[in-house]
Amino acid sequence: MRSNRVKPDAITFLSVLPACSHAGMLIEGCSFSLAMKQDYGIIPNIDHYNCMIDLLGRTGRLVEAQQLILNMRVEPCVASWATLLSACRKEVNVSGAEQAAFRIMQMDPKDATPYIMLANTYSAANRMNDAQRIMMKMRAKDITAELDKVLCSNMSPKAMIGIDSMHISRESSDAAMNMFIRSMNV
Q: Any stretches that span the bilayer, and where are they (predicted)?
């Protein structure tokens, strides 16, 4: 950006920051985040903060990610805590996962995601009793996971993915992937 004398805007950084996150480029991502404010006068919004939470989480900086959520200048949203929860699940950080999950449960009491992700974290930590307990708590509150539809263009649903089944048929996933590949080769 600097070498081409291009003046980035807020949307530019919503491309750059996730790229740094997915590449595991912590230093570069932090540098771009600072430049956004200091060099270009762009005030970060919740999406920029969530990108930085993701970057910190993907690079194992869970404490820093949580501190960012607690200290950012905008109100954290469910996605902020869910991003941290996902990173905690990946790192099998039970304490962090519990904190993030309970924040989500407070913000969106009918969302099944924090229960399921927390149960998965407990399972990964070989805490099966806790995993069962949290799933029973979810069921006791009559919280159910919604089904997602995999849609391709204007085609009918190719598969239904439910939390209880946690699988998709091979034929459906192959059909969706082939359609995606064909559309990219246009």
A: none
pLDDT surpasses 50 at 51: yes
Tokens 């407070």 locate to 106
Q: Checking phi first, is residue 84 left (phi over 0); if not, alpha (psi -120 to 50) or beta?
A: alpha
pTM: 0.77
Low-confidence winner among 78-82, 138-142, 181-185 (lowest mean pLDDT): 181-185
3-state helix, strand, coil in the chain (%, to 5): 65, 5, 35
What is the dihedral sign for C-alpha 94, 96, 101, 102? positive
DSSP letter (8 states) at residue 157: P
Distances (CA, A) of 132 to 92, 118, 121, 177: 17, 10, 12, 34
Burial of 74 (0-12, 13-18, 19+ CB in 10 A): middle
Bridge partners, 148 (sequence order): 161
